[in-house]
Amino acid sequence: MTGPAAITLRGVGKRYGKNTALDGLDLEVAEGEFFCLLGPSGAGKTTTLKTIAGLEQPQAGTVELGGADMAGVEPYDRGVAMCFESYALYPHRTAYDNLASPLRSPRHRLPAHEARERIGEIAELLGIGALLDRQVGRLSNGQRQRVALGRVLVRPARAFLLDEPLSHLDAKLRQAMRAELRAIGAVRRTTTLYVTHDSVEALALGDRIGVIRDGRMVQTGTREELWHRPCDTFVARSFGRPRINLLPGTVTPEGHFRSSDGAYELPLAVPAPPGTAVQLGVRPRDIGLGAPAGTGGGPALELTGAVHVTELLGRATEVTVRIGGQRLSLVVPRAEAAGLSPDRPVRLSVAPESLLLFEADRPARPGRRIST
Ligand SMILES: Nc1ncnc2c1ncn2[C@@H]1O[C@H](COP(=O)(O)OP(=O)(O)OP(=O)(O)O)[C@@H](O)[C@H]1O
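Above: the input record for the complex with adenosine-5'-triphosphate. Below: its predicted structure, written as tokens.
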């Protein structure tokens, strides 16, 4: 039998004056899980962490830690460790002192040699082992951010709440740190709720990911679930660069997909009544250039269009193709795109199983997925 979830939020509502930060948020993080909360700026990510930590009181709903209701429980007694984006460090003390300070509190006091060992492991993995004798005020922003993160991770906690802890690092270091972070023993053993607006980071780190928008949880799942079965176009657009193509169209009397400008029709079985406004979702890397390559699945669908522009993306090339009045983006190996110039006619192929169908977007509601 499994025990209670480490973190459970049910219907949590939090308003600041007229501003709604959380609007009936539900969230469940299992014991030991590394859960990434992904959402755009203002979605309510930081408010979620603060509410769990007890730094904000929700006006509605419940917060449970390990199955116990946290209403009225002081932050200090909740046993969670939170890393803020604005890190409060002691600038005149050394990095080591800053890392050691949480271990001096009566609750977390450790014998000196154990404290040294714990700090050593974490500092090494965060790449700040050589900076321990330096004054924090003299470190770069990125180095300081890693000290702040280390300070959270050194003390034993029932859960770590991390708010964009790698945001001040340059791209290369951020990528390296992602791999290291999950290797830290304390992180492996401790439930971690990690906030980010970077979908690449969420995909790389999360055992599961929750996508939050306007203070509500839109979808939670593994990276595969969110990638292959996004519940709506908002989630579909949240993952993958270049973004998923969403081609507007309608359902024909035969139940097929016809582009909104009538330029092409695809013989798909669209699970919606004729005349319904829909969107066809296809990721740029799922589209091939030229005739179908004859891969396992069903027969590939073909489209013809004209090259609009090409753009180099390292070893691959993004090709934007015009089909009637629509634009479609695909990513192909650089060699395949050599010699493609604007206006050149091209054939495209796509495997039907990689297509997603959504309802049309409405002003305040992204279209829901209708394909299974
Ligand atoms: N103390 C506050 N007073 C007033 N409004 C607030 C306060 N804190 C947050 N908000 C508002 O609540 C909403 C959610 O904010 P929150 O900081 O949780 O979002 P976020 O997803 O963490 O965004 P970001 O990535 O920009 O930090 C925003 O509209 C924000 O302006």
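Notes for the reader.
Residues 16, 19, 21, 39, 41-47, 197 surround adenosine-5'-triphosphate (CB under 6 Å).
Residues 245-359 form a domain with the OB fold (Dihydrolipoamide Acetyltransferase, E2P) fold (CATH 2.40.50.100).
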